[in-house]
# Entry
Amino acid sequence: MAARPEKSVLSIQSTVVFGYVGNKSATFPLQVLGFDVSTINSVQFSNHTGYKCFKGQVLNSDDLACLYDGLKENSIGSFSHILTGYIGSKSFLEKVAEIVVDLKKNNPSLLYVCDPVMGDNGKMYVPDELLPVYINTILPIADIVTPNQFEIENLTGVKINSEEDAIKAMQILHDKGPRTVVISSSEFSHDTSIICLASSVTNGHKEVYKVQFQKLPAIFVGTGDLFAACLLAWLEKESGLKLALEKTISTLQSVIKRTLDKAQALAGEGNTPTPAQMELQLVQSKADIENPPLTHSASAL
# Structure
């Protein structure tokens, strides 16, 4: 068996020319944290879809197969991790599953980190036909999954109104295959806080953690992609889920607070920042990405 490649990620998700979502949001932090990153872009847009318009291209499953074949034929398709995010079509997602299986066949120690990007705030923004593919095909081959509350509710059929509901939903995903399940954001508390919950099973031993933090008065784009990338990195670099989760959340909070401060300064007092002003301040947060100030702690449940 070939040795596990050292810190090399194949990241398959969206990208934009301007701004930070998808691969643009994930690549820089992974590189700063010592990972080689190879990217395949499921879509390439001028900017994220929250602007007044966007233009660009969408890859289909044949395009994905062609790119992967090129890697294989040159014997450059060996990775320690595969990371997936936004995928907009059923056939593309099915081809991703084939690629993950093929990569794991050649390297059984490869870790698949899946951010099942399907929707948020009660709304799906991918076709409904992707949901059964995630449930029946992707979850059984994923090692780590990072859904938000809306996504895990759809993946499990469990409505989350409490920590107990969340733990039940995470166990359903464990039973499908992934050994680590992280709900990147959930809002079921009676105040304005957001709760992140994480569960991991190793050799029959289960650990569950919670991190709670205040919701900021703004909408951020690309944070889920940043979350999955940082979690991948810190789970690899640290020995335990607790510290990896704390470093990931602390990184996210540093980035979004810097982003909001900059956006409000640019917009001026009393004005709502534009989408361009609200783009994540990733490069400006390089020091915090490398060495996150531990501003948030995880409590065991």
Notes: The CA atoms of residues 102 and 143 lie 15 Å apart. The first strand starts at residue 8 and ends at 16. The chain is about 40% helix and 20% strand. The two ends are 39 Å apart (CA to CA).
